[in-house]
Amino acid sequence: MATIFSGGSVSLFPFHTNKGTSSFATKAPTLHLKKPFSVKSVASLGTEASVSPAVQTFWKWLQEEGVITAKTPVKASVVPEGLGLVALKDISRNDVILQVPKRLWINPDAVASSEIGRVCSKLTPWLSVMLFLIRERSREDSVWKHYFGILPQETDSTIYWSEEELQELQGTQLLNTTLSVKEYVKNECLKLEKEIILPNKKLFPSPVTLDDFFWAFGILRSRAFSRLRNENLVVIPLADLINHSARVTTDDHAYEVKGPAGLFSWDYLFSLRSPLSVKAGEQVYIQYDLNKSNAELALDYGFIEPNADRYAYTLTLGISESDPFFDDKVDVAESNGFSQTAYFDIFYNRPLPEGMLPYLRLVALGGTDAFLLESLFRDSIWGHLEVPMSRDNEELVCKAVRDACKSALAGYHTTIEQDRKLKEANLESRLAIAVGIREGEKLILQQIDEIFEQKELELDQLEYYQERRLKDLGLCGESGDVLGDLAKYF
Questions:
Q1: What is the mean pLDDT of each run of 10 residues along the chain (490 residues)?
Q2: Per the confidence metrics, is the pTM higher than 0.90?
Q3: Is 81 annotated as a binding residue?
Q4: Residues known to be catalytic
Q5: Is 331 annotated as a binding residue?
Q6: What is the distance between the alpha carbons of residues 293 and 313, in angstroms, rounded to a whole number?
Q7: CATH code at position 99
Q8: 280 and 355 inside one domain
Q9: 302 in a labelled binding site
Q10: Is residue 132 within 8 Å of residue 147, measured between CB atoms?
Q11: Which positions in this protein are listed as binding substrate (predicted)?
């Protein structure tokens, strides 16, 4: 029967996403400090007391590099999220608010052209850029010295939570995902130390700690832009100061790569546009990713949205190797775009994912229903599984799912009602994340349980394969009664 693991993850990064693509290619930027500065003013930069000397030095560096000019319509400022970009004048929708030349980007090309490019040539992009970030931060002569000066040591991403803070995620999928990611990063970094850092001490003269690795990992996790032309992993100084807002309901065309286009333009430019109209003195926002769940937002950036549309839960379904029809079922699954194990992301108040019910029925298939696994039906079996196969099969599916939901709900140390009561208080940011994640997962588990409870109540009213087949042959009436002498055989 199906195995449904409550600890399955919404995003399997850095192993694979549910679609098998690299997760580092899907991250947008943010800056959410663990302890934001207090907001004092939005006066012109240079005289404003609310920004730190490091930010002022960073801004001066950008001016010297020609990134900030008199025409730049935004400035760095202290905002509720920490640091952000505030409009110096009214900005219209789709107005360009900043452009950063490629020579200041941090990406695999920057690694390849650096002193460590040779020893990093066989590493995956994210590992090579991590090493580059760590090394450049330790160098006094780094081009990005002033940029590193404004970066936080950590965010509220769950990879930085203490053991006590992680206990608040008890029972959640996010806890298992976080622990898996941390273990993966630790193992990868230990290999880097052994194979790259220690054999090349001239290139890495400063000691590299596990904290350094997690700092670099968090920077990439939260700041790497995606969907850029020919770029899969790129950090853009200045552009990563822009914060996320749920008010922005599109993530299209907020940023792009331009050039080299003009006669005197020899460099590519990262161009960032405002997706909304903004008044002078207001913060400019973008949408990081409309498709991310709250668990992914918490893992990547260290925040969640109150929007229930972000609630998600992943059911992990598997065909047991002890199943007597294992090979046939795996063959059917693979022929229809699945495999021995399948992950189904379920979002709150949305229909069940496409393919989930046929897959469940395939896993539960057995007994007299197993004839569908014969080669004669191989091309048509998935169509048969799109609708109820038999009462026994449908009942088994419902029971397995409902049992899994009840088991998962029992793993939390609070109820939905307790979580909602907690949310009425002014919670510390990490506890607020944990409470929101717990509540969201439990609401979806209840939703799944209710869906399959309703299916159980309808078992006697459903039309199964046998009735459909007899109707096709003209041997069954519209009411479902078997015609003539055949009735005695059913």
A1: 39 29 30 32 43 95 96 95 95 95 94 96 94 96 97 96 98 97 96 96 94 96 74 88 92 75 64 94 94 96 94 96 96 96 96 97 95 91 95 96 96 96 95 98 97 97 83 57 48
A2: no
A3: yes
A4: 288
A5: no
A6: 9
A7: 3.90.1410.10
A8: no
A9: no
A10: no
A11: 223, 227, 240, 255, 288, 301
